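Repro:
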Amino acid sequence: MVSFRDSSVVIIESGRTLIRAGLGLQDLLKAPSVEIQARVGLRRNPGDNANGASSLKPGESSDNLRPSASSSRASSLPFQSSPSAKVHDYLVGSQLDEALEACQDVIVSWPFADGDVRDWTQAEALWKYVLFRTLQLKRTQNESPVMLSMPAGLFRDSSERICQIFFERFNVAGFGLLDRPMAQLYAAGQLSGVVVDIGHEITDITPIYDGFIMQNARSSTPLGIRDCQVYLANLLRSNQSVMAAASPPDKPSDPEVTQRFLDDLVKYVWMEGLVRVPSDGQTVEIPEDEGVTDIAAVLVAGKEKAVIETGMKKKLTAKASAAEQARAREIEALDLVTVEFREYSITLGKERHRFCEPLFDPTLLNGLPVERADPYEGRILPLQEAVAFSVRQTDVAQRQYIWQGLFVNGDLTNHVKGIGAALQSRLAPFILSTPDQATEVQPRSIRVLTVPEYFAEYREKGDGFAAFLGTSIVAKIAFNESHGKNFVSKTDYNEKGPHAILEMSLASL
């Protein structure tokens, strides 16, 4: 039986727009050491036209291997595929960042943005960069097994092709493939629930029951971080402090320059954690009992700094005069914050907390410049309606268990707190709450999940890293179990080929 050292295990999380990776598993699972955007760049040839390359055909694979069966575009992020491009032709990670900063003529493509693999050469270039450039592995002496998480619903052909790439191109010692929503739910310590993964422009909703994804109930809604940014940028046009910096009265800026300033400011604001989502139960204060603080609980929760700052604030408040205290309460009620952005001091008010409103009311985006891949027919469902719709597609007897695991994550949740509680309160009307109408199988409540605080490395990072944490948990179990059914070994691959990946049984973990 093959056994692997924990220090040699590689974890890779491939999302629509980000790839995270790390080498080695410890008793206390580590956060990812690598994070790159899931995009590649190809320098434009002199004969290419301005809109792409005359030789580029969207959706075409770069070799004779089978491409993804998906042909529809779910994402508006750019995608181009060149049939003549090789893996080494693509710029990835810091190489691409430097080329774009230098204003080089580069075609950028996002091969995972539609939820499947749109171009195998581009996908291979990304994974190769992660393994051999950032993690410093050696292909000829590769003793590392890899556990890879990917968006749910991959085609069987895609799963086999991924397995083939990792064994034949990267020479891995073992390989496991995990659905991203399952990894996210494992990170929260649950087997049943509904995972709401808020991405850049698409939110994926995945109901899971007893460790199995309800494939017929999965759905996506074309709402994401991009929509929130467009909405808040428009709101900030009414803020005099913002507009004085974006387009000074004595030297007005070009409209496009002003819009870029607003877009960049909005991104800075939410990534700095200056946005919250108003909702009942959003925050939980550190409990105190007659001035006695539970030091052990504070240390476990990692909130030592918060407790010290709260104590200092109380002491200062006690010494302040009545007038000073009244003024402090007035300022606190206004909820003003001053940020230093591009050499400007900009004051923002409560409008910044409206950042996530389009997720729950897409009609707020009407008339705003939101780019979508294809014209969206019909009404875009608010997030709460989309989640409720997905859960209603599951069996009635399963719903009460699924509603006990509402897990909202994605990169947005690393910086904006309270989204789960806000969604929970808006979902309440969709479940039975009248006791005299209840039956044994009717759900009575919705429980919001978070990553447990005992994962020290993830405590302050937010739930957006749940997919990587869950993939690490599965890797630690799978690569150390005795039956070898939860990953593909080199022996398995030599005997069965890429088809071996379809015989994996991660659900038995």
